[in-house]
Amino acid sequence: QKEVEQDPGPLSVPEGAIVSLNCTYSNSAFQYFMWYRQYSRKGPELLMYTYSSGNKEDGRFTAQVDKSSKYISLFIRDSQPSDSATYLCATISSGSARQLTFGSGTQLTVLP
Amino acid sequence: GAGVSQSPRYKVAKRGQDVALRCDPISGHVSLFWYQQALGQGPEFLTYFQNEAQLDKSGLPSDRFFAERPEGSVSTLKIQRTQQEDSAVYLCASSLARLAVYNEQFFGPGTRLTVL
Q1: Do B40 and A98 touch (CB under 8 A)?
Q2: What is the pLDDT of residue B99?
């Protein structure tokens, strides 16, 4: 079993829809939780990160972490065609070399 | 300010050839990571440097993989006797190394290696 499991997609939604992307993780030592966005043939770029449980909002994006169920979510409101990309959840253990452990990614297409 | 750069962007190698992939981190970033991303998968950790010291190489898949960062800035990932299963995108990331604070890792565009 991988340490971070992500809904594989692909996911296709109409412009303006609310998108929900989800991951689960197995290691309770994980403290930081990130969402990266990766456009085709580009490197991942950080969208948001949260520490421990709770919600964090940044514009149209909301990240949610539930440590009791080891569940990570990213919500995108009023989705735009420019949001079309692969979204990767990731965690980082405070006791490690601080390498990132990624999910497999969900490919999102927002149709105009 | 320049971000992380990697070269070459694309590399085609015949099976058995040696390849060298270069990473230029953001100036002043102490930490440098290499990741391997197979098609349709998330990046997987290969190795980590703090300055010139390689502190973790637990993700390197075999002894054909070797990484160095001799002066604590530019890093090279070398793959000897390439195999088809080495085909992937190799990503480099760098970050500041402030202790007890989350350090964002900034990724380069990657080198896409295809082994024929």
Answers
A1: no
A2: 61
Q: pLDDT tens across B57-104, in order? A: 999 999 999 999 999 999 999 999 999 999 999 999 999 876 656 788
Going by their DSSP bridges, the two strands B111-115 and B10-13 should be labelled as: parallel
B84: left (phi over 0), alpha (psi -120 to 50) or beta: alpha
CB of A19 closer than 8 Å to CB of A108: yes
Residue type for A3, please? E
Q: Which residues pair with A12 in a beta bridge?
A: A109
Contacts of B98 in chain A (CB under 8 A): none
Other beta carbons less than 10 A from residue A33's beta carbon = 26
Averaged confidence pLDDT in chain A: 92
CA–CA min distance A62, chain B (Å): 18
Separation of alpha carbons A72 and B74, rounded Å: 35
